[in-house]
Design a protein that fits this description.
Length: 106
Amino acid sequence: MPLYQRSAPNVSAKKLLEWSPRASGDLLAIESFYADFSQNTADRVMAEIRRSALQLEIHAAIGRPGQVPDTRELVIASYPFTLVYRIIGSRVRVGRVLHQHQKYPD
């Protein structure tokens, strides 16, 4: 290999996505809220949150720096929610799923 060619670090290594108990509780509350109006709406909201979260497995740093040290925040474009997460080695741990009008950090 010529001196000017270097192999790029593997920045796209797939990470394991984890949900904290608190984030899992957030998801249940969100689903319950929307299901009171329409199960179809609840299903769409939940699918979009999960789809967005799955992006973190490949692109963990796509979220903005978080308000709490060592966290990042991924805004869900289609709905008023933000995933608050940490990158911990080969894992991405979602700590909260917050409505954008919620006071945070709490």
